[in-house]
Design goal:
about 260 residues, alpha+beta, BirA Bifunctional Protein, domain 2, SH3 type barrels
Length: about 260
């Protein structure tokens, strides 16, 4: 196992904010939990916490994220938007698109985005993103963006093999984790600035081109256990998923878990 070369990352990073303050650990329970604690102090926007291994990495809806040492990228990024939550609609999906493009550029292999926050390569999940926000006085003070990527993993836990994979398994070659992190932070910084200036609509064309499950039958189960089914027809201006049901009606899903259905 080779640890990340932090000196190389800092030397090659050309961002203005993202990653300029970087906390590196060999092991943490969760990079997002640690960054959330740091955010209560004076650390600025763009601060990154990265770990070789997480013992309690997490995904959406309380799911755990498998984070073995020295093989993936497990990091969290701090944003300080100072905006009402309505202005941040679609942020995770927009940054997911940015991340997919960065991974694709480094690996030279197509990467798609599964709503609302997963990255897929060859129709298998290789990464995910989790956004956790804190508000005060009606404004979002902090947004912690947690990103987990299976990069050079050669083995995937048996219980995850049906859906999950790694960039190495899908491309047949190892990927520099350092170059991948540099590319991700650079792209995320540019696209976060674009999101603040123009909103989610500026990502529509880019996202449509790499939208996983587009035109396929899927079911969405929301947090209340309500299930909606239909053909994925895209997303709206706020980043909500759109399904066309059997009656031809458009159904909007703003949260939930998506599962592809057999035709």
């Amino acid at each position: 196992m080779k640890n990340l070369d932090i000196n190389y990352i800092q030397k090659n990073l050309k961002t203005r904010e993202f990653g300029r303050k970087l906390f590196y650990f060999e092991q943490l329970d969760s990079t997002s939990s640690h960054l959330a604690e740091l955010s209560k102090g004076s650390v600025g926007q763009g601060t990154v916490v990265i770990a070789e291994q997480q013992t309690a990495g997490r995904g959406r809806q309380g799911n755990s994220w498998h984070s073995p040492p020295g093989q993936g990228l497990y990091f969290s990024l701090l944003l300080r938007p100072g905006l009402p939550s309505v202005k941040l609609s679609g942020l995770t999906l927009a940054l997911g698109c940015s991340a997919a493009e960065a991974v694709e550029k480094i690996t030279q292999n197509p990467v798609t985005v599964k709503w609302p926050n997963d990255l897929y390569c060859n129709s298998r999940k290789v990464g995910g993103m989790l956004t956790e926000m804190q508000s005060h006085g009606g404004l979002i003070d902090n947004a912690v963006i947690g990103i987990g990527l299976n990069v050079n993993n050669e083995l995937i836990p048996q219980e995850l093999c049906d859906t999950a994979s790694s960039l190495r398994l899908e491309t047949g070659k190892a990927t520099s984790r350092e170059n991948l992190l540099v590319g991700l932070l650079s792209g995320l910084e540019d696209d976060y600035r674009l999101f603040r200036e123009q909103g989610f609509k500026s990502f529509a064309g880019r996202l449509t081109a790499r939208f996983f499950l587009q035109g396929k039958r899927a079911s969405v189960q929301d947090g209340l256990g309500i299930q909606m089914r239909g053909v994925v027809s895209g997303f709206d201006s706020d980043g909500c998923l759109l399904l066309t049901d059997q009656q031809g009606r458009i159904v909007k899903c703003c949260s939930g878990t998506v599962t592809e259905m057999e035709r």
